[in-house]
Amino acid sequence: MASILITGGAGFIGSHLAEAFLARGDQVAVIDDLSTGRFENIAHLTNHPAFRFAIADIRDRIVLDRLASEADVIVHLAAAVGVKLVVEKPVHTITVNVMGTEAVLEAALRYRCRVLITSTSEVYGKGIGVPFREEDDVVLGPTSKSRWSYAASKMVDEFLGLAYWREYGLPVVPFRLFNTVGPRQTGRYGMVIPRFVAQAVLQRPITVYGDGSQQRCFCDVSDVVRAVVGLADHLDAPGQVYNVGSQEEISILDLAERVKHLTGSSSTIQFVPYDQAYAPGFEDMRRRVPDISRVQALLGWQPRLSLDEILLNVYQYIVEKDLAATFLT
Questions:
Q1: Coil, strand or helix: which one is 119?
Q2: Angstrom distance (rounded) from CA 292 to CA 133
Q3: Which of 1, 12, 139, 171 is at a distance of 20 to 30 A from 69, taking alpha carbons?
Q4: How far apart are CA 73 and CA 242, in angstroms?
Q5: What is the pTM of this model?
Q6: Pick the CATH number of 3-180+220-244 from 3.40.720.10, 3.40.50.2300, 2.60.120.260, 3.40.50.720
Q7: Residues marked as catalytic
Q8: CA triple 240-152-106, angle to 5 deg
């Protein structure tokens, strides 16, 4: 039995991760300020004898220190979430991501906790060498485009984490998530699949940003959780970065058509220029496909759920919970 601290644990991924650790007998503590996470995601865990929850900002060093002092492993998920939020609140994005990670690493060093740092496929920037490999060079856009502040801040998180590994021997494992999808994810912060499904259920136009030719790979949250738990356990994981994601690629336009077919919706597909969806001069990545050979070699991990299964799960969740209208507000 281990003691696990999950920052941002009331969020979409964090709540599923808390369930997985509890299910195998671990003690789990969560810290979340509920700015993008939702108490409803973890409400069913609050009566579990091995679960604790603190409502606090990750930069609250007093609360963080108390929780870290009792942890064997910290899974650091707390961060700015979604392209929309990143573009609209760049100061929040940079400060929460960088200062939050610094606070976590300082606390972990005091108590010699293993730390998993959640990073993102965004760090690959304008890279065109698909599939993306962890050791690829990185090209970002100019600092005048706030869209790239998220990628830069997560790169700093990785640099800082690996520096703690090299200089202090702190066992740090950065992992880069590609598009992760599943129940409890909302469409409020630019997440495309729950937004498409909610629009289709409500018979509203399915809004495709840009021309829809941009291609993405979507991984179910249950598969991501398996990888994160494996990285938390494996003694050889620290000191390297790991891609975690699916390699099943689809264009966003084809995704919209697939959602429309799955839901039996009469929704039209409406194209929205990036300038209107986000900000003038917004730049997007054309393709995002991970090379997952490193995590496969370490853990024998690969995704199990197909895109069709993922879409069906999201659709059933939104309909059963009657969340479509909520997801679009």
A1: strand
A2: 8
A3: 12
A4: 17
A5: 0.95
A6: 3.40.50.720
A7: 150
A8: 60
